[in-house]
């Protein structure tokens, strides 16, 4: 069953009313179809329930509580101003674990290109998508309303996508785009992490060892329009198992962060990337940085695409804060390798809490 057919005319209509960011205007100059989630649509229609108390719509935002803005253009040179700006970025990671990144230097055209590849991927049939079953998931449950794919550019399987997405004589558009995008985003992510680590005075932290040979993960999420957004969830509350995540989306809202006991919508900004702290950074800073719980909600009218670039450490490194951090107090987290942390998280199905990593003294 076809859930969505965004046509050029619909697209133009939305552009006219100004509700679409520039990121999106290119995307659907052709028909875009998603044939998955059909079973859950029917289930959802049959099993609607009361609106949960913590439901916040995809377009509900609180103007007085917005995530901080970090301007990448202010980090050039070695001046006091740079130091001040780094400290502001540090404060954003401590207080929110989220910030908008403006003047990030990533070309809009590259972001469009990768989004196009993501739309192409999700436009394939469920059968085709499922060939990536270890990295492709379709949530057919009543409450969840999304599908996603994780792509590890370093795994060297990009040509499989190439062959699926276009004929065998394709020009490797998928792999070329993904590699280019990964390289640009990784450089940006590393720069942000380096600035933050410098701002925290983690001088002895062996950044290069820690991040040597790291494999970034691209995570693409797609949420088709949903008949009953109040009774569904795009991505359930979770924290990210990474150092940092940098993401952009199709500009219609839906990402929400849990803050002071409430879910707050993060308004989309066409000029900004959205950066969030992951569990690894929270552990390495001994809890100074917050790995925020976040979720996405769906909406009735439009599909929502998001493209996230996730920076993780090498599997064998031990997650332990450096002495500059530990001099302020004992470690609150168990010293585990990244792989051990990751596997335990998976085994315990503990995607929304770092409790399993906390030492008894810190509870
Ligand atoms: O779709 C979004 O905005 C967030 C995606 C996300 O949280 C994730 O992929 O981990
Ligand atoms: Fe996430």
From TrEMBL:
SUPFAM superfamilies membership: Clavaminate synthase-like
Record keyword Heme present: no
UniProt GO MF annotations: metal ion binding; oxidoreductase activity
Keywords, in A-Z order: Iron, Metal-binding, Oxidoreductase
Domain Fe2OG dioxygenase: 213-313
InterPro entries attached to this UniProt entry: DIOX_N (IPR026992), IPNS-like_FE2OG_OXY (IPR044861), IPNS-like_sf (IPR027443), Oxoglu/Fe-dep_dioxygenase_dom (IPR005123), Plant_2OG-oxidoreductases (IPR050295)
UniProt superkingdom: Eukaryota
PANTHER family according to UniProt: OXOGLUTARATE/IRON-DEPENDENT DIOXYGENASE (PTHR47991)
Similarity comment text for this entry: Belongs to the iron/ascorbate-dependent oxidoreductase family.
The protein, known as: Fe2OG dioxygenase domain-containing protein
The organism of origin for this protein: Ceratodon purpureus
Lineage of the species this protein comes from: Eukaryota, Viridiplantae, Streptophyta, Embryophyta, Bryophyta
